[in-house]
Amino acid sequence: MALRRALSRLLVNSQRCSLISVSRAQGTSAPAAYAKVQFNWRDALDLEGLLTEEEIMIRDSFRTYCQEKLMPRILMANRNEHFHREILNEMGELGVLGPTIQGYGCAGTSYVAYGLIAREVERVDSGYRSVMSVQSSLVMHPINAYGTEAQKQKYLPKLARGEILGCFGLTEPNHGSDPGGMETKAKYNPSSRTYTISGAKTWITNSPYADICVVWAKCEDGRVRGFVLERGMNGLSTPKIEGKFSLRASATGMILMDEVEVPEENLLPHVSGLAGPFGCLNNARYGIAWGALGAAEFCFHAARQYTLDRIQFGVPLARNQLIQKKMADMLTEITIGLQSCLQLGRLIDQKKYNPEMISMLKRNSCGKALDIARQARDMLGGNGIADEYHIIRHVLNLEAVNTYEGTHDIHALILGRAITGLQSFTVGK
Amino acid sequence: MLPLRFRRVTMSARVLVGVKRVIDYAVKIRVKPDRTGVVTDGVKHSMNPFCEIAVEEAVKLKEKKLVKEVVAVSCGPQQVQETIRTALAMGADRGIHVEVSGKDYETLGPLQVSKIFAALAKKEQADLIILGKQAIDDDCNQTGQMTAALLDWPQGTFASEVTLEADKLKVVREIDGGLETIKIKLPAVVTADLRLNTPRYATLPNIMKAKKKKIVNVKPADLGVDVSSRLEVLKVDEPPQRQSGVKVETVHDLVEKLKEAGRI
């Protein structure tokens, strides 16, 4: 009897109650030796309980901003391919740009907080999160990690406030997965103490509107180095890439450099070789691992609500087994993915991480999120292709997210090399 | 030491802001099976929206350098410290946690809270108390008024605009007939209405600074306040289920039905 009462309560409450509640067990024998914990599909393994009070406050404050200020804009921004430059200033005011950097007007918070921030933005749109990731991990981070004190003072506070926008130039038309083969060259001129940089970069988030570009070029000694180029320099242009069906709310373009003269003070001196750009990419990939799951969560929750509301053959779609199986898979992957991201964040904060960990989770989160978004789109039927229901936008966005910052397959090779000790990137030995 | 009401308010003014921890507005409320109250265990709580507006107003006054210090106060068990921290993250300088727990907390109401605030106002030598006009859980709309009465301070309730002019406060109040403007002398009690301001999002740097700000614990007994309640909750029920309506054919039928139901 007690068991049946408990069971019926679980079934009744699972529809209305979407939060964990702790209540005394129905046992009649000994006084309750354990408290019954109700399953919470929004947070199945109690990620909340593993966060600090500060992280919860940061997440809650930023989630409110994203839902109140970003969500209302995204439908039209995506439909009309309009980039809201203002969001950088708004995020700057909230202090979420370059959040892990100490000093220079940055918050100096944990990597877990950075991940939570990325998840909230991407819950709205991956394009917005890309803009934020580029600014924080691909522009502010290299200046902070590899730049001189003068460069940090000059650029970081303005980047943190969103006053200036940056972009990261590594990928080239002929060199995506193999950045080492880049053709952009930097030639030093001892007489004028400048570098002359020529080449083309493509698929650069923010470039059409960027005030500065952190460009990676091969120097005469064959080593790759980073340079800060500023808009207005002769020979520098940033045309927009048209016809994009992904990340439409963020502006993507090229960086074309025709013998751009860059003063030597703009070289990032404290790194050379591919370790430079890879350090930045790892920083960004970590944020993406969290972010992609935010997008997946939106799709899961939206599909759940839709299938509960839509009645076909006299019952909600959610009554069907095929629908429930899909949701069970979504719930599982998101829950497990988030737990792994939290552990990774904690390891990074303790400085006990390595790049392969980040590769593993970026790959997992993006691959699973793309699959979840596609399934969710299918569950919405015809309505699933309308941007008003938002899911199709996530489906299209996640195609890019799965590809950039290291494709799904490339990360597999990174892991394969770590597992076997044998590289399989090139045909040679 | 001059009585509070005769003290001239200078730039060293201190503001007390009350913040209440309530069930989040977005949560679907459920009545407990024993009908003694609503389910609060494990349910999402946050700062009462009108208290957020009160904190925002106080912090704005500080930013304009019209007041020197903003003190956030909350009454309740350990968890209310989260609410105080949120106020600190919005810009309050320090917090006071008045510990009330268990049965006392379940029966805590405006009368006891206003006694606590009156005592704290004297102890902290506050010049201004800003509260939300009401809490979204009990909708009492009494604490501000009672606090002013206990202190014999003027009150500006349902404030949609507050301007500090020397030692007087100009308050525009939202009333049924429209807007009423009054001028009251400090020290005073103000309660915040919806349109007073738009609360800021707590920024990351401020959330992190909030960790270092102090929250002091006091007990009602230390303030000489008895928190026992003179009210007893007999039962709590859900609102009656909405019944389906009836369609009528003509206006004549409509009038007949309304008469039947005793409505006209």
From TrEMBL, chain A:
One of its GO terms (molecular function) is flavin adenine dinucleotide binding. Pathway: Amino-acid metabolism; lysine degradation; Amino-acid metabolism; tryptophan metabolism. The keyword Mitochondrion applies. Its cofactor is FAD. Residues 167-260 form the Acyl-CoA oxidase/dehydrogenase middle domain. GO terms for cellular component: mitochondrial inner membrane; mitochondrial matrix. GO terms for biological process: fatty acid beta-oxidation using acyl-CoA dehydrogenase; fatty-acyl-CoA biosynthetic process. It is an enzyme of class 1 (oxidoreductase). The keyword Disulfide bond does not apply. Its EC number is 1.3.8.6. Residues 52-163 form the Acyl-CoA dehydrogenase/oxidase N-terminal domain. Keywords: FAD, Flavoprotein, Mitochondrion, Oxidoreductase, Transit peptide. It catalyses: glutaryl-CoA + oxidized [electron-transfer flavoprotein] + 2 H(+) = (2E)-butenoyl-CoA + reduced [electron-transfer flavoprotein] + CO2. Pfam families: Acyl-CoA_dh_1 (PF00441), Acyl-CoA_dh_M (PF02770), Acyl-CoA_dh_N (PF02771). Residues 279-419 form the Acyl-CoA dehydrogenase/oxidase C-terminal domain. It is found in: Mitochondrion matrix. Belongs to the acyl-CoA dehydrogenase family. This is Glutaryl-CoA dehydrogenase, mitochondrial. It comes from Cyprinus carpio (Common carp). The lineage of its organism: Eukaryota, Metazoa, Chordata, Craniata, Vertebrata.
TrEMBL record, chain B:
Its main location: mitochondrion. Residues 35-227 form the Electron transfer flavoprotein alpha/beta-subunit N-terminal domain. Gene3D superfamilies: HUPs. SUPFAM superfamilies: Adenine nucleotide alpha hydrolases-like. InterPro entries: ET-Flavoprotein_bsu_CS, ETF_a/b_N, ETF_b, ETF_beta_N, Rossmann-like_a/b/a_fold. Pfam families: ETF. This is Electron transfer flavoprotein subunit beta. Belongs to the ETF beta-subunit/FixA family. Keywords: Electron transport, Mitochondrion, Transport. One of its GO terms (molecular function) is electron transfer activity. SMART domains: ETF. It comes from the Eukaryota. One of its GO terms (biological process) is fatty acid beta-oxidation using acyl-CoA dehydrogenase. Coiled coil: none annotated. Heterodimeric electron transfer flavoprotein that accepts electrons from several mitochondrial dehydrogenases, including acyl-CoA dehydrogenases, glutaryl-CoA and sarcosine dehydrogenase. It transfers the electrons to the main mitochondrial respiratory chain via ETF-ubiquinone oxidoreductase. Required for normal mitochondrial fatty acid oxidation and normal amino acid metabolism. ETFB binds an AMP molecule that probably has a purely structural role. The electron transfer flavoprotein serves as a specific electron acceptor for several dehydrogenases, including five acyl-CoA dehydrogenases, glutaryl-CoA and sarcosine dehydrogenase. It transfers the electrons to the main mitochondrial respiratory chain via ETF-ubiquinone oxidoreductase (ETF dehydrogenase). Heterodimer composed of ETFA and ETFB. Identified in a complex that contains ETFA, ETFB and ETFRF1. Interacts with ACADM. Heterodimer of an alpha and a beta subunit. It is found in: Mitochondrion matrix. One of its GO terms (cellular component) is mitochondrial matrix.
